[in-house]
Specification:
CATH class of the largest domain: Alpha Beta
Low-confidence stretches: none
Order of helices and strands: HEHEEEHEEHHHHHEEHEEHEEH
Number of helices: 11
CATH topology of the largest domain: inorganic pyrophosphatase (n-terminal core)
CATH architecture of the largest domain: Alpha-Beta Complex
CATH superfamily of the largest domain: inorganic pyrophosphatase (n-terminal core)
Largest sheet: 6 strands, parallel
Distance between the termini: 44 Å
Number of domains: 2
Structural class: alpha/beta
Strand content: 15-25%
Length: 312
């Protein structure tokens, strides 16, 4: 990877659809370092950057329009397949090399260079080590971006993928002097009114099935319309499903005009990524997702059957 960066002059960076803190933070950190090395960089996200991430340095450099021209390298972040990043084919065909950086075990090895580390807590953790191996001194702004990626993808260092190495990297980022307390406030102590309202609707829908071992949350299209809310406003609602005693897994169905987004969470050794993968999705053992182009009722029936079988 280091050789590619040295030999290349132009880079295209993209993350997955419905981007999160890890995707956006990693993208911005890589772009900043590449620009400091004198490289030409274009950043792309097919879906809008979530409102709670707009505080990140240089976030406005991310465009929703595919750039023209050729690139020496295209770097895809947290995309288990190229399609996970949206309609990227026109640019990938014009890229000299494709780099796949991901921490999901379901990631396909589609790149010319594949840096896939399922045991890493986040893509930001992988990116930090890449910089470390290149002897790059990380700036405060880059540290802000990488910390955002790590803290959000570990659930504030709560998820099982958090390791001693994760905490060591977070410590090194704090040593740069960036205002981590402000970052935490913006991420976790500041919520849009739409987020609070859609959370209430999500909790109203919560039901326990499979003998109380499975929590189910359902958000319909009209729920979002009622509060002028977007998908980003319910990003963390799924985590509440694991709170009732006895629950081992949670699933959230989110109805959109042309698809049903399904998010999975679980505890311990229960591997919900196997269920997600069976429906064309992927992710981690305890945190995964997929998309279905069916009705909400059909999606619920199919997914709940698989989850009930998993928990039997």
């Amino acid at each position: 990877m280091e050789e590619l960066i040295v030999a290349s002059n132009s880079f295209f960076l993209a993350g997955h659809l419905n981007p999160d803190g890890d995707t956006i933070g990693s993208m911005l950190a890589i772009a900043s370092v590449l620009k400091r090395l004198g490289k030409r960089v274009r950043l792309f996200s097919q879906d809008p950057v979530p409102q709670n991430l707009t505080f990140l340095p240089h976030v406005k450099a991310i465009s929703s329009r595919l750039p023209a021209g050729r690139f020496d390298a295209a770097i895809l972040l947290e995309c288990s397949t190229p399609a996970r990043g949206g309609a990227l084919d026109p640019v990938l065909k014009r890229a000299g090399k494709v780099v796949n950086i991901d921490h999901h075990k379901t990631s396909e090895l589609y790149g010319d260079i594949n840096i896939v580390e399922p045991h890493s807590s986040s893509t930001a953790e992988i990116v930090y080590r890449l910089f470390y191996n290149m002897n790059v001194n990380i700036s405060r702004r880059e540290a802000t971006c990488l910390y955002t990626g790590i803290v959000t993808d570990t659930g504030r260092f709560h998820f099982p993928a958090t390791s001693p190495r994760t905490l060591e990297i977070a410590s090194r980022l704090l040593e740069t002097g960036f205002k981590f307390s402000r970052v935490n406030d913006l991420l976790y102590a500041t919520k849009a009114c739409e987020s609070l309202k859609i959370l209430g609707r999500a909790l109203e829908s919560l039901e326990l099935v499979a003998g109380g071992r499975l929590a189910v949350i359902t958000l319909r299209e009209h729920d979002f319309k009622a509060f002028s809310a977007r998908s980003e406003h319910c990003e963390n609602a799924i985590n509440y499903g694991l709170m009732p005693p006895g629950v081992k897994a949670a699933v959230m169905f989110r109805e959109e005009p042309d698809r049903i987004n399904v998010t999975f969470r679980s505890t311990g050794a229960i591997d919900v990524s196997a269920v997600a993968k069976s429906f064309g999705g992927g992710g981690h053992r305890n945190a995964s997702g997929c998309r279905l182009t069916t009705t909400l009722e059909e999606a619920r029936a199919r997914v709940l059957t698989s989850l009930t079988r998993l928990l039997a």
